[in-house]
Amino acid sequence: MNKNYTYIEDLHNEIGEIPTNGIISRTLYSDDKLKAILFGFDQGQELSEHTSTMPAIIHILNGEARLTLGDDPIEAKAGSWVHMSPQLRHSIYAKTPLVMLLILIKQ
Q1: pLDDT tens sequence across 39-83
Q2: DSSP type of residue 32
């Protein structure tokens, strides 16, 4: 049977154990329109400043982070949500163990 949906009961179970002093990522879904990636960061880990060629959404699921969006520092926590335009400079620093969902919107 061909399903027209993807269902994940609990995103927290999908990430598994976050490595000590590390970052883990898992692609949950990908098609020609979008890609969903779940990230787990240990406290103190970061993705340094970078850009994306496509629009993106970050949804913080658990923990606290300092996001830098362009020149703006943002304090994010569980429930925070950000939409980013293509080419926006951004970085992510995990202030606590962090789980976030990244959605890349393919154009």
Answers
A1: 999 999 999 999 999 999 999 999 999 999 999 999 999 999 999
A2: S
Residues 6+ apart with CB under 8 A from 58: 67, 76, 80, 81, 82, 84, 92, 100, 101, 102
Handedness of CA 27, 89, 78, 103 (dihedral sign): negative
Q: Is 1 inside any structural domain?
A: no
Show the tokens assigned to 33.
């329109």
DSSP three-state, residue 4: coil
CA atoms within 13 A on the CB side of 44: 4
Residue 49 counted as domain residue: yes
User: How many domains in the chain?
Assistant: 1
3-state DSSP call for residue 72? strand
Tokens of 107: 């154009």
Flag whether pLDDT at 1 surpasses 70. no
